[in-house]
Amino acid sequence: MNARRDPAARPVAGGARGRFAGPRATGLLAAGLLLVAFWAVFLPQAERSVFGRVPILDEIYYLDRAAAKPDPTEPAYMSPLYPKLIELSGSTPADPTARVYAPAQLRGIRLVQVACWFGIVALLRLLAGRVLAPLAAQGWRRQLVTWLPAALFALYRPAAVYAATVLLDMPLAFLVTAFLALLPFAAPVPGAPAWRTFARAALLGVVVGLAALLRGTALVLLPVAMAAFVWEGASRSRRAAAAATVAVVAALVLAPAVAHNSKAAGRLVGPALNGGVNLYIGNGPEANGFYVAVVPGSWLLDPAGRAFLAERFDRRSVSLAQADSLWADAAVAAIRAKPLRAAGLWLEKVRLHLQGWEIDQLTTVDGWTRSAPALRALVVPYALIALLGLGGLAAAWRLPAARWWAVTLLALLAAQSVFFVVSRYRLALVPALALLAGLAVAVLTGPVRPRPRAWRQWLPWLVAVLLVVPWGLGGVRRDWKAMAAANEALRWAEVGAASHDDASLARAEALYLQAVAGKGGGPAPWLGLAMVQRERGDVAGAEKTLLAGCAATSQNLDLQKQVIKLQLDQKRRDEAYPRVLQALRDHPRDGDLLHLAAVLSEQAGRRDQALAAARELRHWHPENPQAYVDLGILLARGGALAEAAGVFREGLTVSPGHADLTANLAKVTEDLRR
């Protein structure tokens, strides 16, 4: 397998180079102008669309982290690098609580991602021209192989969608493509200076480190890079030194984030603390290969489910590092309990990464296309990229460059399949698949292609077809379609609420009705539909929706809370109070329920029960300023002014400057003075 013995390892040089220089330059210029023209049309459409103006879920989290003041005591839960990119691009939101943005407000980070998109196209064109084109026959076949990988990526619709979305997947895909370009494909030319090898190794270390700061699974690229240098190097000492250079430089890039997280956690941890929960989502009892919402609570305020874990494990509080360990322990326990199930689930996730159906989750491609019609020009489906890429995988081991492209693809596929599958996670696989697709076409159209027995020649393609066809996903596709409708509905609802536009609210209501009719998405569509109905003045309809949602979701706690709050707003305390007590029996430590129980008990004249609920709230939620407000007010109304003042002061140590605590402390202090 020595690369120097493989005549296909080096490009074919000759006098034809000058002859084709003019047409090649013309083709590059024409392609570049077409791509620029597409983005000149698509980017404004994306910015004006409801998807561009209303970020949700992960997008909100990253924007919130970019706007948050640095806190040395808080570790990074998700990517520590991407919020920095938002900040450096000038897209940090002035108002972190805003949910509707002006069309151009996030243009900075989008332009960074569009630049990454162009960079991927350029690198794929360069790699195909240098490595794959010499394998194809002259004429149109060589031109096809030269342009195919870049065209597959450029015409892949979700790639443009993710470039216009506030998510880290496009920068990550660019770094993966740069990794593919920097890998040592063949033994160095004799007499070449050693510094070139070490410069490439250092660059690879930087790429691996930055990719791992975006998503932890990218760390699997490190052993691939080190193995490539060891395998393809000229001398044993230089090979070992180059591999060590990759590791040292990657470690230096990761060191600041690891040091910050480890200091905050009190033990050695990685640059992000969401590995444990993602491992549980992908391998816990509820896992089915896709993302499954198993973490109760607010995605923005408590993405790790710390409140849920504190209640489950009988603790007053749980840190992010502790939550990471608890989720990881639960995932490992599930794997050990049923190892065959875990192995089968991993194989299923490998298949889900390669099957051709576009998984609607955070970004719905159909909705984006309706809002930004320029996307209709992008016609390449993932199924075609995966099919051709898998076809090229079978021939990759005869060509040094393609061999390492294949190893990179398989390593990413194996690492990501440990967790779970969503559509945007597959974007990191597309550059390698596109290059291997070019190899497949080069082999099929090349002048010296191998001629094995017929069954051996077509067997890889048969396997590829079986992997790409989305077998047995009918029920899941129905559920995700419902969730996609709820996804779009939430954005229209935010626009309608912010601008008081009933047409947008009506659009949101129609989409939410479509979602709940699809019986997918859990409680979120019911909550969203009730919110829209209430915003439109249909309070009775909102309550009816919430009650129907409770019945459809086995009395989901969030839906029950909204029923109680709606009844409270309507002064229907006699109906709300028994609901609170009933919900508390099942969730005795829930902060919202304890607050509502304290308020309703006091209004019902049950002072002892109110005080008990307020004390429970403070005990189990010591970081919640509302706990100190509730308890202090109840004590003050009972005449215990000094004790109330002490509670308010304690609350201000937890939440300095809190308006209600400050005002109540001043009032109690004045009463004591009198």
Low-confidence stretches: 1-20
The percent of residues in helical segments reads: 55-70%
Our Rg estimate from Cα atoms comes to 29 Å
Oligomer state of the chains in this structure: single chain
Shape: elongated
β-strand percent reads under 5%
Secondary structure tally, helices: 31
Got a strand count?
A: 0
Helix/strand class: mainly alpha
Mean pLDDT: 88
Distance between the terminal alpha carbons, to the nearest Å?
92 Å
Largest sheet: none
Q: Would you give an account of this structure?
A:
The chain is mostly helical. Among the domains are: 3-12 and 20-272 and 352-455, no CATH class; 601-674, Serine Threonine Protein Phosphatase 5, Tetratricopeptide repeat. The protein is built from 31 helices and no strands. Helix 17 packs antiparallel against helix 20 (454-468) and helix 24 runs antiparallel to helix 25 (557-569). The model is unreliable at 1-20 (pLDDT under 50).
Quick overview of this protein structure:
The protein is mainly alpha-helical.
Q: How is the secondary structure organized here?
A:
Blueprint: H1 16-48, H2 50-53, H3 58-67, H4 82-88, H5 107-132, H6 140-154, H7 157-163, H8 169-182, H9 194-214, H10 221-232, H11 236-265, H12 275-283, H13 306-312, H14 320-337, H15 339-354, H16 365-371, H17 382-393, H18 400-416, H19 430-445, H20 454-468, H21 474-499, H22 502-517, H23 524-535, H24 539-552, H25 557-569, H26 573-586, H27 591-603, H28 607-620, H29 625-637, H30 641-654, H31 659-673
